[in-house]
Amino acid sequence: xxxxxxKIELTExxxxxxRVFDIHxxxxxxxxxxxxxxxxxxxxxxxxxxxxxxxxxxxxxxxxLFLGPNTPHMPFGNTDFKDRLEVVIQFGEDFxxxxxxxxxxxxxxxxxMERSRRGIIFHPSVKEELTECFEGLRTASHAERLxxxxxxxxxxxxxxxxxxxxxxxxxxxxxxxxxxxINKAFEYVNTAYHKEISTAEIxxxxxxxxxxxxxxxxxxxxxxxxxFINEFRIRKAAAFFDKGGCTVSEVMYKCGYNDPSYFxxxxxxxxxxxxxxxxxxxxxxx
Length: 286
Known about the structure:
This protein is of the alpha+beta class. The chain folds into two domains: about 15-165, Regulatory protein AraC (Jelly Rolls); about 175-285, Homeodomain-like (Arc Repressor Mutant, subunit A). The protein is built from eleven helices and eight strands. A six-stranded antiparallel β-sheet has the order 1-6-2-5-7-8. It has a two-stranded antiparallel ribbon with strand order 3-4. It is globular and about 60 Å long. The two termini are about 25 Å apart. It comes from Leptobacterium flavescens.
C-alpha cells in the first residue's frame, strides 16, 4: 500500500474522475487519506465499515455517500460477493463553479455541495433509485457519463433522505498545509504501524513541535494521536484475523504491540471482545 495526499488527476477529455471497481479490479487501498476533491461513492452490495473523520459505523447491504473536500476517511469497499461493484466519482470545486453554475436549472446543486462538507450518507432507497444510473456509467461514453453524472447530482440534491456524519462542516477551517501535515501522519502510520511510533517522532516528520502537532491532530480528528494509532492497529489486527493463518501472538507483533495484556485491552476496547474470542468467532463463521 502506498498512502498519500491523494491527488486526483483528470484526463483532457473528462470533467470529473470516474473509477469502477469489481471482482476483476478491487479498489487500491490507501488507508487513511485526504484529498481536496468532492467524492461520491456507490457500493452495490455487501457489508463494510465507514470511517469518516471521527464517525465509525458499519453498513449491511452496500452504501451511497457523498464527502466534501479534505475529509479524512478510510476506503469503504468490501469483497463479500462476486458481483460486487464500487463506483467512485471525484471532482474539484472548479467543476461546480465553472460548469454546473452556468446552468440555472442546477441552482439546487450548491446546497448539496454545502451539505457534503458535513459528510452525508443516503438512505438505501436513494441508492436503489440510482442503481441503474451508477451501474450504467461503467460502459457509457464520456458524453453519456457526463449526462448521467448530472442526473445523479440532480437526484441527490433533491433528496432529503440522508444522514449527516457531523452537524457542522468537517474541515471548514482547515488550511491546505494543515491537511497535508495530517496526511503525512496518516501516511507514516499506514506504513509503520508495525513498529514503535512516538508522538515526538511524528511531530518532527510533519515539521511541528510535539505540542503543536498534538493540538492540530486533536482538532482535525477529534482524537489523540495515541488513540488514533491504537484504533488503526486494532483495525489491522482484525483484518489479519479475517484473512486467517495467523495466531494471536503473530498478529499482535505484526500490529506493533509487544505487551499481550495491552493488546488485549485495546482490542476489547475497540471490538468488544478479546483477540482470542474474535479469532474463535471467525473460525466458527467459516
